[in-house]
Design goal:
Elements: E1 2-6, H1 10-22, E2 25-29, E3 42-45, H2 54-60, H3 68-74, H4 77-87, E4 94-96, H5 103-110, E5 113-118, E6 128-132, E7 146-150, E8 156-164, E9 170-172, E10 176-181, E11 184-190, H6 199-213, E12 217-226, E13 229-236, H7 246-249, H8 254-263, E14 275-282, E15 297-300, E16 310-318, H9 321-330, H10 338-347
Parallel strand pairs: 1-2, 1-3
Antiparallel strand pairs: 4-7, 5-6, 5-7, 8-9, 8-10, 8-12, 10-11, 11-14, 12-13, 14-16, 15-16
Helix pairs in contact: 1-8
Pfam family, one: ATP-grasp
Organism: Sapientia aquatica
Binding site for ATP: 77, 117, 122-128, 149-152, 157, 180, 233-234
Length: 352
Amino acid sequence: MKVAVLGNGQLGAMLQEAGLRIGVDVTTLNIDGDTLPDNDTIITAEREHWPTNAFTQAIENHPNWLNKATFAALANRISQKKLLDQLGLATSPWLELNPSISQEAIHQKLGPDVFLKRASGGYDGYGQLRIKQATPTDLSAWQNDVIAEQAINFDGEVSIIGARNRQGETVFYRLTENRHTNGILIISLSQPARHAQLQAQAEQMLSTVMNALDYVGVMAMECFMVGGKLMVNEIAPRVHNSAHWTQAGASISQFELHLRAVCGLHLAQPVQTGSSMMVNLIGVPYNPDWLKHGAARLHWYGKDWRAGRKMGHLNFHHPDPAQLRQWLTELELPEQFQSAKEWALNNLGATA
């Protein structure tokens, strides 16, 4: 069985690794041009944005290109927000900007604290601007293909990751708690029974989207927790950073689960025991001391260093969250990681 992945970054590499384990031949494709897969190859993607060129147009017309309608609906924030509204799923109040809308009108509709977000291309905090009613802001560069979104005073951030096959069967991982700094995910935690009261709601919300789009594969939905309910922040139609912990903390990783779904293999419910923690290694050089703990599972991406770049991640898993707290306390991380580290230390072992 053959699968090609549009995009050749770290997610594609981890899909390749998962494919080796279960006998699926996975190749990655350069978005700037590559060899077009044959008609027996299933084509999926590790990303939702790519340039329009002769190669990507040929991919989109390939008979085994999956989820064409999904990418059209979710890759752009405007169409994604419209879909959420149509499906009746809670999301932050928003509007589409145009040159005639003033900052005053934005705040009249959305309140004193608002995020401007590029409708396409922005991720990990890029392509966003926060504006306050008390501070006049030049909006001349934010008038086209942009949404304005009410800033939400949330209680916490979680993500639900699930998979759907062609028959409409679905499976899910338990809710993952996430901590971001400057819009970039730093630490994810997966703990038994944590926010269990929201699990069914999260699964229903993600199922609604996957079924509406007839989606096949792994999909991630990031949510705000607000007053005991969930509000959708954004959706990614692919394997996702916040589910990297599944490489250590689940019997089936998100990467294997995606391949199972797209290839029509058994879509078994992953077994999840104990507590898991993922630490993103953002803008840091390689440090062999990360490997001094026998439980540390390092995934290093081999990229050229750049400030703010995802260089790799560390996974930890143990039946006792107290052990994760000890390992995290001992883990040497730069100053910019400290607030996320403190958050994780406070939340490891929590059950509510």
